[in-house]
User: Fold this.
Amino acid sequence: MIDINESVMRFLLAFVVVGPLLGAAAALLPAPPGLKGRSPEQAVLRHGVTVTGAVLAAAVVLVLGFDHDHPSTMQATTDISWIPALDVRIHLGVDGISLPLLVLTALLTFLCALHSYFKRPVPPVAGPSPKGFVALLLLLESGTLASFAVLDLLLFFLAFETVLIPMYFLIARWGGEGRAAAAWKFILYTLLGSVVMLLGLLLIGLRAGTFDMVALATDNGRSLTASVQVVAVLAIGLGLAVKTPMWPLHTWLPDAHTAAPTAGSVLLAGVLLKMGTYGFVRIVLPIAPDGFRTFAPYLAAFAVVGIVYGSLACLALARRGAGGDLKRLIAYSSVGHMGFVLLGIATMSPTGVNGALFANIAHGLITGLLFFLVGGVKERTGSTDLDALAEDTGAALYGRAPRLGGLLAFGAVASLGLPGLAGFWGEMLALFGAFRPAAGLSRPAFLTFMAIGALGTLLTAAYMLLVVRRVCMGGVPQGTEATPRLADVRPYEFAAWTPLVALTVVAGLWPKALLGLTDPAVQLFLAGGTR
Assistant:
């Protein structure tokens, strides 16, 4: 790591948060004549790559300058008074919990911008598309990065809400069949959840006398009565559970993923779902621990139901003749995978919470890759219907596009938790956390949850291997002409997908790189905010 001045670190974090917002505004301006290239559309898409690339570079330098010996300490902090009457401050900072999420967000957004530059996003209806697409993509990135960097409850809520509008328009404007209904369902669910969450945040801030998340975490609920904590956790938890999404509040997710464009699906699964689980770890668990302990068994129960439900739904979609959609199947798999994250958080143990944070990052990498791959499959075959991909196209992907088929198989086995890949560690640690939950939680209940979650891992392996067998494997039917080959992985696709493959392998083989960041911070707030 390199030694970087604290003021430079503060500037880098501020740029990571504000840079995409300024880039979104600039995207709507006319391109300078010298930068138009072949067309204004190309210029604005290149602008998106440039801005997201600069943000990613700043995030990488932030990692290099981060003090890895003290990852539990907030670094690169900015603290400016904004609304003195309510003690609301523009408070930014990063620690071992938020740093990986910042980098993941910057990486996925850059890869989406790069992919969109080479494959121009065209809306189903007429109108100027690239400017709006790039502006919405950058606005979405700014709101997501701010959610992981702000340390004030009201600022967190504003950032949390900022992402809803751009994602709504990305689905409604650039989505596929059923995009209007899916976009409305997405925004109605999340807005209603956010209203309830705001009430809980206001209750905590007004009762504690501050909205500062660091001060509240250090206080560790001592200034809040048990009844206030219970009400606050219920209100905030409902809003976060919708975004996660937790069963049975997940019903907006499959429709949104199925209708969203490739970039929208990648960011929705890879980044936006993490905002909900991050809120549990950053806000609910350290600020209202007694209230969270009351609801932890119920959260774990909903989590394991979601694990099994998501797996069974995927099995139903994957079977022959079901007419299942591959994008919809991966969306339902997210319900199961995020169930493991919620189970780890519900254990309130260092092992479980670290597993949840690891699973967050692993899911972002793997599911982001899978949605990129499914987008590539749809572009080549014109369909994501599993029956059409498995039977109607003759030879499956191994025979028609070997590299694409191999990458899809890699994403599938990573998603099912194969040891040596990123998906393994988070789910395993979440189950280990359930084996020995925090003091005050019923161990027999959590042992039951662990057993149900372990069953979910077997079901996950079953449906993922079924998808690989049906989509990737198979030969040319007898008595027919040779099935024409599909275009294999193109150079720009290789550039967009390789980082996700590499990081999935690195995280699987070297989990300490991530756990070394999260564990000190987790240990600190679970110990009551003091060493």
